[in-house]
Amino acid sequence: MPPLLANAAVDLFLKGGPIMYPLLLAGLVGVAVVAERLLWWVRVAGRRDPRAVAAALAAAEAGDWVAAEQGVAKSADPVARVLRAGLAHRTGAFEGAVQVASAAELREAARYIGVLDTLVTLAPLLGLLGTVTGIMGSFNSIGSDELAVAKVTGGIGEALIATAAGLGIAIATLLPLNVLSARLTGLQADLEAAATALQVAIQKGRAS
């Protein structure tokens, strides 16, 4: 960042008042969480193996349980891991095994989503608090014996800067939150679809 731009940013931050420090912390937490989650989903995308999942389900449909188990035995795909748990318990507690495995995958996928959701709500509230404190400072200046125009305008500036910062953090956090929530919903749908297909294949094998 150029020195002049950096100095202007620091000056704007200081003019925002004390509430800018918790806003800065909220922004840093948001950046860290978004970066960690995006990297996690990139790694998951590299581990996805739809061919292995499809082959295992096809083998299960044909009643070839050995091939079905071998198809997902070494796969790191979250869907494949759920199928592996279901196949290992196909003669017993199938539903319980699938639910436990799915919950573990979804718990990891939903990690820190609550933090982003909290930041979306918290950042505007912190900005509003900065607005209130800034306006209060302006009114206190007006009520003094000598009207200090600089203090009045400074308080109004503090209010506007804090409000803008809070809204900016909320908007910047909301976009990745929606993207991550959509990816989570998609993974949940894939897990449910694969588990249901495997359950149908198992029931078919028992009926035959």
Strand content: under 5%
Task: Please mark out the parts with pLDDT under 50 across 5 or more consecutive residues, or reply none.
Answer: none
Q: Tell me about the biggest sheet?
A: none
- How large is the count of helical segments? 8
**Which structural class is indicated by helix and strand composition?**
mainly alpha
- Distance linking N and C termini: 70 Å
Report a brief summary of the structure.
The chain has helices at residues 3-15, 20-47, 50-61, 65-72, 78-88, 94-109, 113-142, 149-207. It is mainly alpha-helical and 208 residues long. The model has no long low-confidence stretch (mean pLDDT 86).
Word description of this protein:
This protein is mostly helical. The protein has 8 helices and no strands. The chain has helices at residues 3-15, 20-47, 50-61, 65-72, 78-88, 94-109, 113-142, 149-207. Helix 5 (78-88) runs antiparallel to helix 6, helix 5 packs parallel to helix 8 (149-207) and helix 6 (94-109) runs antiparallel to helix 8. The longest helix has 59 residues, at 149-207. It is elongated and about 85 Å long. The mean pLDDT is 86.
